[in-house]
Amino acid sequence: MGISALTPPTKPEDVVETLLEFPDNRLLIELCGEFDRNLAQIEHQMGVHVLRRGNRLAVVGEKGAREQAAAVLRSLYARLEAGRPVGAGDVDGALRMGRPTAPAGEGEQIELFNPGMELRTRKKPIEPRTEAQKAYVANLFAHELGFGIGPAGTGKTYLAVAVGVTMFISGAVERIVLSRPAVEAGERLGFLPGDMKEKVDPYMQPLYDALNDFLPSKQVEKLIQEKRIEIAPLAFMRGRTLSNAFVVLDEAQNATAMQMKMFLTRLGEGSRMVITGDRTQVDLPRGVTSGLSEAERILKGVKGVSFNYFTAKDVVRHPLVARIIEAWDADEASV
Questions:
Q1: Subcellular location, in the record's words (predicted)?
Q2: From CA 13, how far away is CA 19, in angstroms rounded?
Q3: Is the N or the C terminus of the chain less surrounded, counting Cβ atoms within 10 Å?
Q4: CATH 3.40.50.300 occupies which residues in the chain?
Q5: Fold entry, domain 119-334
Q6: What is the pLDDT of residue 255?
């Protein structure tokens, strides 16, 4: 990889500095980021200091944190060597993946850059940024039915749509079907302006947003016109058989038990289905059981079905979102 650790062997065991050499100065500049922004991010989150010395970086700090920070820097440099950019989100992902539950052993390298987990879309490659996301993506490829359960901002729907687009581009499926319960539609729907599509589109907007992140907008429009991409409320799924399709049900906590059973039994030959939801954000009327909870209870252990769970640690939006979720969970636990 062209990187060598240059910690002098003559120093004592409790040495507080690890020296890394990066032979390509152009890549080193990209690694550091504008005004050394990437290094500052690593310093802040890992509790170390990173000093530039020519084409070397000195990582100063306690041994465990120092070794993890060095592993993150090696991984990001390997990413640059592979022709991939390094932005703030990529640094954040590497930092999350570089925090093992136990300290790395002497000389052990943490494998963070994993091209095999990359999702190829028409606009940009997508990579899981946490261990939970990595396991989730692997399960979506390995199982015909997958559940992603956890708080907002953990990438459940985003990654599901990315996997769907990847499989669609590769020809593994012929179409993509995205759905959500339009919980507040009911009687109020008739009072909204426009035709049926205009009435329900506001509920579907997050799915449009995800698609437009992966495919050019004109291509999305064309595929929707050709019915190769469908975005529709859950109620529109009744009576259908979804064959050779990648199917995503988002906000599944707002599906009733009957709706969930109806949706799950739409799965046809050659299809994959993903159910995502957050059990803490149920908007159903009081006394109505969430279909997500029912599916989780009934389908646990069923062959071909995977369950992946996310926590505040997997939030990949603004860091404050993770702290908000943790504070909310702590308050509910104290009641």
A1: Cytoplasm
A2: 15
A3: C
A4: 119-334
A5: Rossmann fold (3.40.50)
A6: 94
Which amino acid belongs to residue 110?
Answer: I
Sorting pLDDT into bands at 50, 70 and 90, what band is 139? very high
The DSSP 8-state label assigned to residue 284 in this structure reads S
**Contact indicator for 305, 146 with CB cutoff of 8 Å:** yes
Give residue 235's identity as a one-letter amino acid code: A
What pLDDT is recorded for position 111?
A: 44
Rounded Cα distance, 85 and 94, in Å: 13
Q: Which residues pair with 5 in a beta bridge?
A: 20
Contacts of 118 (CB under 8 A, 6+ apart): 125, 126, 127
Helices (H), the chain: 25-32, 37-46, 63-81, 88-97, 131-142, 156-170, 196-214, 217-225, 257-264, 291-299, 319-334
111's tokens: 């494998």
| CATH for the stretch 4-110 | 3.30.1370.10
In this prediction the pTM is 0.69
- The CATH 3.30.1370.10 domain(s) of the chain lie at 4-110
SS3 33: coil
Phi-psi category of residue 83: left, alpha or beta, with phi > 0 → left and psi -120 to 50 → alpha: left
Per-residue pLDDT reduced to its tens digit, 100-117: 433 333 333 334 444 445
- Could you give the CA distance from residue 276 to residue 149 in angstroms, rounded to a whole number? 6
How do residues 42-101 score in pLDDT, each as one tens digit? 888 888 888 888 888 988 888 888 888 888 898 888 888 888 788 777 787 777 766 543
In the chain, the percentage of residues whose pLDDT exceeds 90 is 33
